[in-house]
Design goal:
Blueprint: H1 30-50, H2 56-63, H3 67-73, H4 77-84, H5 86-99, H6 105-120, H7 126-133, H8 142-161, H9 171-187, H10 194-206
Helix pairs in contact: 1-2, 1-4, 5-6, 5-8, 6-8, 6-9, 6-10, 7-9, 9-10
Length: about 210
Amino acid sequence: MATETAGQPQTTGPAVTAPARPQDVRPMRADARRNYERLLTEARTAFTEHGTDTSLEDIARRAGVGIGTLYRHFPNRTALMGAVFQGEVDALLAHARRLADAPQPCAALVEWLRAIITHATTYRGLSRALMTASADDSSGMARCSVPMREAGGALLTRAQQAGAVRPDVSISDLMQLTNGIALAVEESPDDPQLADRLLTLTLRGLKGESR
């Protein structure tokens, strides 16, 4: 996924920490908070309409601030993406908690994976960003990918303990496969059944020896 457009500051810019976790965020002045919220609102709209590679200068302009203000809040594109997608990730984590005691562990895992695909295809480029972040816990998207792996790992372990999923399946590989399916769906908007077909093929490889 592209990072910044030509001429934009790079990740070595001002040493401002992205709001990776709520407890890490310093209290903001009222004007700074307004700028932060406007940037998130405009970024969410721009990512939905144009994808995650949309110009950061355009996002700043739509928010009524300069590009320097954007970078003071979000030192790089992935930090902005992580903040924008936090609400959706929180919803997916809550969904995983609701499924934690489902009577059919494998069905619960499948339901959650399907929800991830739906989420990832809402924003063009998100699935690619999540695939990249899965190999880099220092990425601005790690705030999304790390808790997702933990939540998915719990559902996967439960399905494995029930004998419904092979014991050698890892959550990292499963998340990569899921994001790969989301990427394929993103590239094939005229095939609404593609996600279910690919997920079904994936699941056939996940199941244990019992028939």
